[in-house]
Amino acid sequence: MSVLVFLEHHGNELQKGSLGVLSKAASLGDPEVAAVLVGAGVRALAAEAGAFGAKRVYVAEDASLDPPTPQPRVDVLAQAVAHGGYDTILLANSVLAADVAAGLAARLEAGLNWDLVDLERRDGELVGTRPALQDSVYVEVGWTSQQRIALFRAGSFDAAATGGGEPELVELAPELEEHSRGAKVVDQQLEASSGPSIEDADVIVAGGRGLGGPEHFTLAEELAKALGGAVGATRAVVDAGWYPYSAQIGQTGKTVSPKLYVALGISGAIQHKVGMQSSNVIVAINKDPNAPIFEFSDLGVVGDLHEIVPKLTELVRQRRAS
Amino acid sequence: MRIAVCVKHVPEGSARIDPVSKRLDRSGEGALNHFDANAVEEALRLKGESDTEVVVLSMGPEKAADSLRKALAMGADRAVLVSDESAAGSDLLATSRVLAKALEREGADLVLFGQQASDADGAVLWAAVAERLRRPVVSQAAELSLQDGSLRVKRQTEFGYDVIEAPLPAVVAVSDAINEPRYPSLKGIMGAKRKPQEVLSLADLGLEASAAGEAGSGTKVLALADPPARGDARKIEDDGNAAQAILDFLVEKRLV
Ligand SMILES: Cc1cc2nc3c(=O)[nH]c(=O)nc-3n(C[C@H](O)[C@H](O)[C@H](O)COP(=O)(O)OP(=O)(O)OC[C@H]3O[C@@H](n4cnc5c(N)ncnc54)[C@H](O)[C@@H]3O)c2cc1C
Ligand SMILES: Nc1ncnc2c1ncn2[C@@H]1O[C@H](COP(=O)(O)O)[C@@H](O)[C@H]1O
User: Fold this and answer.
1) Under an 8 A CB cutoff, do B135 and A303 touch?
2) pTM score, two decimals?
3) How far is the CA of B177 from the centre of ligand 1 (A)?
């Protein structure tokens, strides 16, 4: 087995998820784990990759590769695979990495198992673990193709420095396909991490599309105030402009673990779940008895939030006052 | 112009995996993957009053025709279903191979996908299809517009928003926040029956049986296991007293 790990970076920082996957790779038994870095100024990140277990780092250093589009990265990874003859390619899930993984799968005709939370070697075979159907069943998956691609769920592995030394550097001069040059990033609105911090709140009341409109977010705000907490939101309502991005919880938002998480009109998609599943106590109100959120709530309430929440807020206020 | 929309027929309610075949049990009732309704809606919005043709495409069992008919009832013009015994059990590699073949035949200027299939939750298929078609791809589109042979997308990433432009022909996956899908009107439902609906086999697409299904896949399911046990979760139905029940629960947990 020879392993190649795709490393994602933002600014001049390697992403924790990528480093976690790199640490995992180093524990699988390949003594020569390699990694790939793509973009501007990435050469400087190679040493850190070494400390987390990479023995060799492919560097495609080019300003034109800096915008985070997937297809040029497929080209670079295919080049690295051809150079080193890797049979196993690992990626930490992200908006970018998911598209890179699937594009590479089609390019190499290599099987892709996604949303894995673990990977181990069993009798020489690689076996991945994937929670499926709203995590109600755990599926053990393998590969039938010569090359194998695995995409891991966010937060599956801790990043652990292995004490490895300077890695061998291999510079790649990127050769991009025609179709990889089509998509261009023309603007980036990077959100500063300022704004009200929900990461430290003991109580979070989060609202989803089930609130019915931006004007109904006051329901969440009032309940949050009564409970002494902060307000969170799903991507669906943030993208729709109902609530600011700084309040978004989930894969592309914040990861929170309050003592109490109250979900109002939230379906409980995996991408939302990964941002709040480690909350101590989860209470969900949803009118759909089949909503996935009930699979991981401590108290699930099937009902109309517009009926229940005003009453609940009032009851909490009364109790607090007494 | 022609817009093709890839839609999936997914099991309704709570799905299960067949313990013997280790495949998703598709014998029960199914419905149009609700994330794909956003893609159909976006195609119809882009079409507007123009003479653009909107084609909906699916690979699936014969019953997937129901989901295609729903898309026609919403307003799509034509449907193509690839249905073949040999395609059952297809993974990402096999599915993308079949869909790419069918899409080549359509020669669409724009191919749209939904944000994720609610049964598979892959949220990756478009990138494999785009690679096979050798076309630019943009995913997670929360806003989409077309202008002079190119498209512009606003999408959310882990760091904020990116605005991306790409020339047509291209592949776009839309997010579920991009629009509010319309409900089919009675007229739409009646009219859907008369719209062209094609059913193709793998052979019709010039594909060998081994190009799809398990033979054409690169992954396999080895075993099924129970998820890690969870504590005692409770679920109640609101009978008018849910607010009190929640408060009692919070008191019991010492959270208020
Ligand atoms: C790459 C990627 C990244 C993503 N990142 C994130 C992320 O960071 N965070 C995130 O949240 N999502 C993320 N998503 C989106 C995610 O998959 C879901 O689409 C989103 O979480 C759904 O939001 P929602 O629950 O508000 O809306 P919906 O799924 O539409 O759910 C609304 C719920 O409200 C219920 N409801 C409606 N009316 C009422 C009522 N009156 N009373 C009670 N209940 C009611 C409905 O039954 C439904 O279950 C991501 C998706 C992808 C593909
Ligand atoms: N069998 C299929 N036929 C047509 N389109 C599909 C099929 N499976 C998935 N799709 C499309 O691909 C998107 C993402 O699916 P997935 O990657 O499986 O989550 C869906 O929203 C659909 O637009």
Assistant:
1) no
2) 0.95
3) 9
